[in-house]
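Crash report, auto-generated. Payload:
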Amino acid sequence: MSIGLARLREEPERIRQGAIDKGEDPSIVDAALSLDARRRQLLGESDGLKARRNALSKQVGEAIRGGASPNGPEVAALREASTEAGKRIEALDKELGEADAQLQDLMLRIPNPADPDVPVGDETANQVVRTWGQQLPKEVEGAAGTWVRKPHWEVAEHLRMFDLERGAKITGSGFPVYTGAGSRLQRALIDFMLDVHTDEHGMTEIWPPAMVNTASARGTGQIPDKEDLMYVVPRDELYLVPTAEVPVTNLHRDEIFEADQLPVRYAAYSPCFRREAGAAGKDTRGILRVHQFDKVEMVFFEKPEASGEALEWLTARAEVILQRLGLAYRVLLMATRDMGFVQAKKYDLEVWSPGVERWLEVSSCSNFRDYQARRMAIRYRPEPGAKPELVHTLNGSGLALARTVAAILETYQQPDGRLAVPEVLRSYMRTEFVEP
RNA sequence: GGAGAGGUCGCCUAGUGGCCUAGGGCGCCGCACUGGAAAUGCGGUAUACCGCAAGGUAUCGAGGGUUCAAAUCCCUCCCUCUCCGCCA
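Recovered output after restart:
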């Protein structure tokens, strides 16, 4: 249940087109519609029989209380009728259960249709919405000749800020060990980001568990489809979180907000664990693609009419962090086939990293509208006493650390080998330069 | 991990097979009384699904079983509390 049966019935054309735009199979929509009709028919029959059985059982009780012999013919006839209804109910319910399961499976495979203002197409249709800052060159001509910026792993090695070899020894490749100033930089960034989001942006800070149970993993949609991306602890049936989105969004699973509680806006730090199955060989150098990294995530619960604007605000909050860090970046509006299955609209923030001369994705800000909320039954009452409606959920990184660190190292390295500390981090780092 | 006690409507609680269509209290909402309020009285106060509607079905931590009939009996699991053990 993600798109919702009501919406499926009301606007099948839009759902079908949404699937096509995202490169998914639209025939699932028709299969779901016919299965839904069948399900409703079965449900009607079953419910009618259950009403009859309930009435008959009640009559048994009344007859016995009225003086009929519990083993007499009158009671026996009622019993028999009830048993018979029970048998048909059992058969119908079995069929109904199968139809339900199939329908649910189909519903999970219908993507969330993108918002109307999202460009249709693959990644080549992504739009650069805006850019900020100066895109520094790798090579700089100076009085002392040409200075070439180093990639972040060389900067880090020189300044002993992280140790990938030992990380590989103690855990495996893709598990960086941050050392000395590198470790302090992690703390500084986490602290800085949380401080801005809480003190200035009014978000509530959350420090969530780093593992979640099966129900939570299912809630945000990590299972069944993305199970291979997560580390699993089978003995205890737990999953290491791939993002704080999972525990934080699940905070309000099966809950109903009062209208005046919304919006609820959280900022959460968590370590993030990703198997990145099948990605071996790509970005093997440095910390651009790792199995464990740190991230401050923003998670919003909004009234439906406010979610569009909330996405713009959310994205701007992530931009604030990049601007204060003095890192050049661009904002991309993701096209339908590059935005993911569950998002209605998504912006990616990419930071410029002059050492590797690449734009690095450090944030992904999405509006899920009611798609996620439906799966997790997160609702609110528009008016006191009114019928609950689904909230809209949004989330975005603010920011992911590893790549931000890479960009800082490559942007702030000095020709003399030192690293200038971005001004906003100096009080946290308690120094202006990191020296060898 | 071991032993014991528990999990019922927003909160507290009654309920050991059919009079449970889950009762009562608190809280909340509405109405009456009032100059206004308090107190009091009356009524209303879960969610999902099906149905044009009338209405029906399901849910008493979760799942399964027994029965014509389960909050109630049986089994498995989860969670909370107390004590013990272990432990940053």
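Post-recovery validation: Chain A has 13 helices and 20 strands.
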